[in-house]
TrEMBL record:
SUPFAM superfamilies attached to this UniProt entry: PLP-dependent transferases
Transmembrane residue ranges: none
Family: Belongs to the trans-sulfuration enzymes family.
The keyword Lipoprotein appears for this protein: no
Name this protein carries in UniProt: Trans-sulfuration enzyme family protein
PANTHER family: CYSTATHIONINE GAMMA-SYNTHASE, TRANS-SULFURATION ENZYME FAMILY MEMBER
Signal sequence interval, chain numbering: none
Length: 370
């Protein structure tokens, strides 16, 4: 098989349009497809089931995550909802790593309140402690690594091996939004389900809202397919096409994000006003604690190149304050226990010149001293 960089660029350039010789795949917007005869199908019937453009994207997503099937959906939250709707029911239990996307916690709390699907959290470190939390009704382990926003790294393989040794029926699901298959392929580490907010690195340009679920097991794929046909949170053809286009640069973008993030992390460590820098050493996400003698609001207002905006993973550098934005729905005590304080700043380091990014952040810090 082609190496990842080649697969990303060439993999979805279908050959079905040999008539025109098109180099990039065609975009099909049709919602209906003619049948050759009664009981016959071209493979395409109605666009909630599948479309030629989405099918190309899904084959590409499955290939790059080393899965057998992928499902492209309308957002990262739709991907999370697809997994829970397909694999959990009232009375089930699941365990989630404790430091993850705030919207996922909002979703978990809703599931618990409305459907009695209860959950416990786990610190992401102590695997024996995780095993002690398993209940007969546990159906799913939900991991996000590096964690968001404090960048703790979880050993996916250790978790999957330990959990499956005692309970092969439990699904290990990994939200792989932060590292992407360029740096981490959870299915090869023993995970059962991979989820993405493709709005972030996979899309990479702050212009597509999308999500993905990838599995490498035919039964799991069948459950997801049936659920998706029933509820219809599919990705539309145009965004699917745009995502195919974006994936072509994923490999080069991720390596450039890492190079820029390493540089910015290094510069911030030497900056007066920065108490601590959190960085997993790979990928484009950094967090840092602004010293309390500096004003967070002034810092944000002084940014000139970087944007104060709450997303991540794109070519533009975006800066957020998780305590009041992405993680605000989490109870305050839990935020504080995790180290999510009012002066924790999260940076999604983009692909502008690394010196420009660092200089912009540092000048904004310097000018925010009270
Ligand atoms: C943004 C995000 C989500 C939610 O995805 P949307 O595309 O915004 O619905 C889920 N997980 C992680 C890690 C995210 O960063």
């Amino acid at each position: 098989m082609a190496k990842l960089a080649t697969q990303l660029i060439q993999g979805a350039n279908g050959t079905e349009d040999d008539r025109t010789g098109t180099v990039v795949p065609a975009l099909y917007l049709s919602t209906a497809f003619r049948h050759p005869g009664l009981g016959e199908s071209t493979g395409f019937d109605y666009s909630r089931l599948t479309t030629p453009t989405r099918a190309l994207l899904e084959t590409q997503l499955a290939t790059i995550e080393k899965g057998s099937a992928a499902f492209a959906v309308s957002s990262g939250m739709a991907a999370i909802d697809l997994v829970f709707s397909a694999f959990t029911k009232t009375g089930d239990h699941f365990i989630a790593s404790d430091d993850l996307y705030g919207g996922s916690f909002r979703y978990f709390d809703e599931r618990q309140a409305k459907y009695q699907i209860n959950y416990d959290t786990w610190d992401g470190v102590d695997v024996d402690g995780l095993l002690l939390k398993l209940q007969p009704t546990t159906r799913l382990i939900w991991l996000e690594t590096p964690s968001n926003p404090t960048m703790k790294v979880i050993d996916i393989e250790a978790v999957a091996t330990a959990v499956h040794a005692v309970r092969p029926d439990i699904l290990v699901a990994v939200d792989n939004t932060f590292l992407t298959p360029v740096y981490q392929q959870p299915l090869t580490l023993g995970a059962d389900v991979v989820v993405h907010s493709a709005t972030k690195y996979l899309g990479g340009h702050n212009d597509i809202l999308a999500g993905a679920v990838v599995v490498n097991n035919a039964d799991l794929a069948e459950s997801l397919s049936q659920q998706l046909t029933t509820t219809g949170q599919n990705l539309d053809p145009f965004d699917a096409w745009l995502l195919i286009r974006s994936l072509k640069t994923l490999n080069i973008r991720m390596h450039a994000h890492t190079a820029n993030a390493r540089y910015v992390a290094q510069q911030l460590k030497q900056t007066a006003g920065v108490d601590q820098v959190l960085y997993a050493g790979i990928g484009g996400m950094i967090s840092f604690y602004l010293n309390t003698q500096y004003a967070v609001d002034t810092f944000l207002k002084n940014l000139q190149i970087c944007s104060f905006a709450e997303s991540l993973g794109s070519v533009e550098t975006l800066i957020t304050v998780p305590d009041v934005q992405t993680h605000h729905d989490m109870p305050e005590a839990q935020r504080r226990a995790l180290g999510i304080t009012p002066n924790l700043i999260r940076v999604s380091v983009g692909l502008e010149d690394q010196a420009d990014i660092a200089e912009d952040i540092i000048q904004a810090i310097t000018h925010s001293k009270e």
